[in-house]
From TrEMBL:
Pfam families: 3-dmu-9_3-mt. Keywords: Methyltransferase, Transferase, Ubiquinone. This is 3-demethylubiquinone-9 3-methyltransferase. GO terms for molecular function: methyltransferase activity. Transmembrane segments: none annotated. PANTHER family: PHNB-LIKE DOMAIN-CONTAINING PROTEIN (PTHR33990:SF2), PROTEIN YJDN-RELATED (PTHR33990). Residues 23-137 form the PhnB-like domain. InterPro entries: 3_dmu_93_MTrfase, Glyas_Bleomycin-R_OHBP_Dase, PhnB-like. One of its GO terms (biological process) is methylation.
Length: 178
């Protein structure tokens, strides 16, 4: 009898390694004519990333013949799709992508690269030049915010609320009360 997956990690390993099944759930993003440009930009920002396929509109439309219709790409190994669907729908902050960063250098890289031509926001949030929202967050932040000493956690929250790009040293100073 074949062993069945017993938890999420086992299920993912079972699906990907033993049966070569694609990612079950993946983001599908709606763009207005610049899906290929966006995908090319995103794969330049993240490691282990590539454009994997581009489907193009034919003579029947609705987009211009030869223009990208759907762009499939991977960011840091995770599958995404981008559709050139037109101006009917736009991105909002109601959906964002969180980037967990292990160092200030990572925070700086993603913040600077993704916010260029976009809009920096508060508390580690930004909109890129395509209007897509990102949260650039150091991995230490949840730990600091969940400190059992509520005074420390509150100082960290207050410090974070005053930041645009998150500063790990500043968050740690707030936790220490210095």
């Amino acid at each position: 009898m074949q062993r069945l997956p017993i938890d999420n990690q086992d299920a993912r390993a079972y699906a990907r390694e033993e049966h070569d099944v694609a990612q079950k759930i993946s983001p599908f993003l709606w763009f207005d004519g610049n899906a290929e440009e966006a995908a090319t930009f995103y794969v330049s920002v993240f490691p282990d990333s590539e454009v994997t396929a581009v489907s193009r509109y034919g003579e029947a439309g609705p987009g211009p013949a030869g223009s990208a219709m759907v762009v499939s790409f991977k960011l840091d190994g995770q599958e995404f799709s981008a559709l050139n669907g037109g101006p009917q729908f736009t991105f909002s902050e109601a959906v964002s992508f969180l980037i967990s960063c292990g160092s200030q250098a990572e925070v700086d890289h993603y913040w600077e690269t993704l916010s260029e031509g976009g809009e920096p926001g508060p508390c580690g949030w930004l909109k890129d030049r395509f209007g897509l929202s990102w949260q650039v967050v150091p991995t230490v932040l949840p730990e600091l915010l969940q400190d059992p000493d509520r005074e420390k956690a509150n100082r960290v929250m207050q410090a974070m609320m005053g930041m645009g790009k998150l500063d790990i040293a500043g968050l740690e100073r707030a936790s220490a009360g210095t």
